[in-house]
Amino acid sequence: MRVVAALSGGVDSAVAAARAVAAGHDVVAVHLALSRSPESHRVGARGCCTLEDARDARRIADVLGIPFYVWDMAEAFERTVISDFIAEYEAGRTPNPCVRCNEHIKFSAVLDRAIALGFDAVCTGHYAQVIAGPGGLTLHRGVDPEKDQSYVLAVLDPAKLVHVMLPIGGNTKSEIRAEAEQRGLLVAAKPDSHDICFIPDGDTAGWLRSRLGERPGQIVDVDGTVLGEHSGAYAFTVGQRRGLSLSRPSTDGEPRYVLGIEPVSGQVRVGSHDQLAVHRILATGPRWVGQVAEPGTRCLVQLRAHGTPVEAIIIESAPDLLVELTQPYFGVATGQTLVVYDGDRVVAGATIERVDQAIEVGGDR
Amino acid sequence: MAYLDHAATTSMSPASSAALIAELGQLGNPSSLHEAGRRARRIVEESREQIAAALGARPGEVVFTAGGTEADNLALKGLYWSRSAADPRRRRILVSAVEHHAVLDTAQWLADHEGAELVLLPVDGIGRVQLARVRELLSVAPADVALLSCMWANNEVGTMQPIAELAELCLEFGIPFHSDAVQAVGQVPVEFRSGISALTISGHKLGGPVGIGALVVGRDVGLTPVLHGGGQERNVRSGTLATATIAGLAAAIGEAVDQMAARAAHLSNLRDLLVGQVLRVVPDAVLNGDPVLTPAARLPNNAHFSFSGCEGDALLLLLDAQGVQCSTGSACSAGVPQPSHVLLAMGVDSVQARGSLRFSLGMTSTPADIAELVAALPGAVDRARRAGVSTVGRTA
Question: Under an 8 A CB cutoff, do A109 and B393 touch?
Answer without folding.
Answer: yes
